[in-house]
TrEMBL record:
Localization (cell): Cytoplasm, Cytoskeleton, Flagellum axoneme; Cytoplasm, Cytoskeleton, Microtubule organizing center, Centrosome; Cytoplasm, Cytoskeleton, Spindle pole
Designated name of the protein: EF-hand domain-containing protein 1
PANTHER family per the UniProt record, alphabetical: EF-HAND DOMAIN C-TERMINAL CONTAINING PROTEIN, EF-HAND DOMAIN-CONTAINING PROTEIN 1
One cellular component term from this protein's GO annotations in UniProt: centrosome
InterPro entries in alphabetical order: DM10_dom, EF-hand-dom_pair, EF_hand_dom, EFHC1/EFHC2/EFHB
Gene3D superfamilies listed in its UniProt record: 2.30.29.170, EF-hand (1.10.238.10)
A Pfam family of this chain: DM10_dom
Domain (DM10) ranges: 93-198, 239-359, 373-473
Gene assigned in the entry: EFHC1
Length: 593
């Protein structure tokens, strides 16, 4: 067999030549028979027995070509960014499909209706494919309405499939828990959503109406009531219409009486009156809602009805000449109900509109019944025990601050100690914008110092005050300087008649003085009194004369004071103030000669 002269040439334009040596041009059969039936066979060879192009490559080469990615001219292709994943509860949050539907319910035991139509709303929540059925509440329907089917995934068939939004459309019937609902329409959002998803919506239908409900809308009566007054007409006309008045009951003239606020309701449907109490938080009263139950209130009784046992029998028209009506309740008018006189000072807008339309009264006033607080009474220290109280004033020249200390007095009933910490004190009658503070020139014998509403009279001073006033005489008036000088002279040299005068001494103070005198006599080598006082004053920042008990014993240990001695223990007990403080002034006196 001669070799093919064109074998091996590339299959390019101009390189394809007809093989002149080829003599077979038959085609491979594509039909055959198997088990007596004609079947189609895929050709395995081409014309003349040549191999087909698809069979010229092995299976491995075909797999390689299938998985081979094309390369660009300038390198590897860039991968496209992955699509952003948004979960369903985020993408469809608060997106709800709403359908209008109804279902028919049989009424077997009724002569007025054989079936009823109940209109419902079907909600489909896209975030979790759940559904709920809500029936709008109709007033006086007598049927439990509201949420008929709570939100859940609803079964569509017995195979476990659930309803999807693709199954919902207008003009279809869906069965949920044995009830067939007819879907008649949907809202605008639902229509746009379904059409955007390629669903063709059916034309909307009219909502079916309940025959019995339409029958009840017809007028109840087509005749005129023969009587002059029709209570049923009044009930139907003024049902749920109530006049509201705001009133007070002023009982301040009686013992322990007070002015209390009430709300009076007048029901137009049956001319009854109800009185409610207005409670405030922490008013100390039991929270009873009603002062008077709803009832008709008589205005004028017959002559013989005063002895009528009202506590056990109800008053009828035979005992009453006139009842209270709406025209008796006017703003600014007082009326007596069950022995209490109520003054009406205001009403609500509905009541004002009713009086304007019914009685032509359009200028009902609003009366201010709030009591003005009396002017504050200036306190003049009415407590008699304050006359015998003594205080120690300390004026700090560096900061112009004042501190007040009250020495404790046993069995006085008043806890002594720090009365006022260091602070600047404003003079009385000074303005807030330009405050004037107390200065050293305001302190002298007989001066009255008012500190936050409390008045103090200066009775005595120490020697340093006199030295300071004499060295700074320009700051003080001659009368103030002379008052201090005379007081110091009297204190240093008392009159003979005052020396022999016997004064009463507190037994506790006398016992303390005896104990201090005994300790001074027994101490052979007492430590320096000034050193002890200075050690305690370091920890007494307020100059109150007291230190904490823990700090007191630390100072005693540092100074090697004999606190274990029985007399010293008794002195510490008598100088103790409460459980945490100790008066170190009297304690230091025991260590002087």
């Amino acid at each position: 067999m001669a070799s093919n002269p064109v074998h091996g040439l590339p299959f390019l334009p101009g390189m394809s030549f007809k093989d002149s040596t080829k003599t077979a041009f038959h085609r491979c059969q594509t039909l055959g028979y198997r088990n007596g039936y004609a079947v189609v066979q895929r050709p395995t060879l081409g014309i003349g027995g040549d191999r087909l192009q698809v069979t010229q490559l092995s299976q491995a080469e075909l797999d390689d070509l299938a998985s081979k990615a094309p390369l660009l001219t300038y390198g590897q292709p860039k991968q496209a960014p992955p699509a952003e994943f948004i979960p369903a509860h985020v993408a469809f949050d608060k997106k709800v499909l709403k359908f209008d539907a109804y279902f028919q319910e049989d009424v077997p035991m009724s002569t007025e209706e054989h079936y009823r139509i109940r209109q419902v709303k079907i909600y489909y929540y896209l975030e979790d494919d759940s559904m709920s059925v809500i029936e709008p509440v109709v007033e006086n329907s007598g049927i439990p309405q509201g949420k008929l089917i709570k939100r859940q995934r609803l079964a569509k068939n017995d195979r476990g499939d659930h309803y999807h939004w693709k199954d919902l459309n207008r003009g279809i019937d869906i069965t949920i828990y044995g009830k067939t609902f007819r879907v008649v329409d949907c809202d605008r959002f639902t229509q746009v959503f379904l059409e955007s998803q390629g669903i063709e919506l059916n034309p909307p239908e009219k909502m079916a109406l309940d025959p019995y409900t339409e029958l009840r809308k017809q007028p109840l009566r087509k005749y005129v009531t023969p009587s002059d007054f029709d209570q049923l007409k009044q009930f139907l006309t003024f049902d749920k219409q109530v006049l509201r008045f705001y009133a007070i009951w002023d009982d301040t003239d009686s013992m322990f009486g007070e002015c209390r606020t009430y709300i009076i309701h007048y029901y137009l449907m049956d001319d009854t009156v109800e009185i409610r109490e207005v409670h405030e938080r922490n008013n100390g009263r039991d929270p009873f809602p009603l002062l008077m139950n709803r009832q008709r209130v008589p205005k004028v009784l017959v002559k013989n009805a005063k002895n009528f046992p009202q506590c056990v029998l109800e008053i009828s028209d035979q005992e009453v000449l006139e009842w209270y009506t709406a025209k008796d309740f006017l703003v600014g008018k007082s009326l007596t109900i069950l022995g209490r006189t109520f003054f009406i000072y205001d009403c609500d807008p509905f009541t004002r509109q009713y009086y304007k339309e019914k009685f032509g009264i359009s200028d009902l006033p609003r009366i201010d019944v709030s009591k003005k607080e009396p002017a504050p009474v200036k306190q003049e220290s009415p407590i008699p025990e304050d006359k015998d109280r003594r205080f120690v004033f300390s004026y700090f020249l560096a900061t112009d601050m004042i501190s007040i200390f009250e020495p404790p007095v046993r069995n006085s009933g008043i806890i002594g100690g720090k009365y006022l910490g260091r602070t600047k004190v404003i003079k009385p009658y000074s303005s807030v914008e330009n405050p004037v503070y107390y200065s050293p020139s305001d302190f002298f014998i007989g001066a009255v110092i008012e500190v936050f509403g409390h008045r103090f009279v200066i009775l005595d001073t120490d020697d340093y005050v006199l030295k300071y006033m004499e060295s700074n005489a320009a700051q003080y008036s001659p009368e103030a300087l002379l008052s201090v000088q005379n007081h110091v002279r009297k204190r240093e040299g008392p009159a003979p008649e005052l020396e022999n005068k016997q004064t009463e001494v507190d037994p506790g103070v006398q016992e303390l003085e005896v104990l201090i005198d005994t300790i001074q006599k027994q101490l052979k080598d007492p430590p320096c009194k000034d050193n002890i006082r200075e050690a305690f004053q370091i920890y007494d920042k307020e100059a109150s004369g007291y230190v904490d008990k823990e700090m007191f014993f630390k100072v005693c240990d540092s100074l090697n004071l004999p606190v274990d001695d029985s007399l010293i223990k008794e002195l510490i007990r008598m100088c103790s103030h409460g459980e945490d403080k100790i008066d170190y002034y009297n304690f230091v006196r025991a260590f002087s000669n």
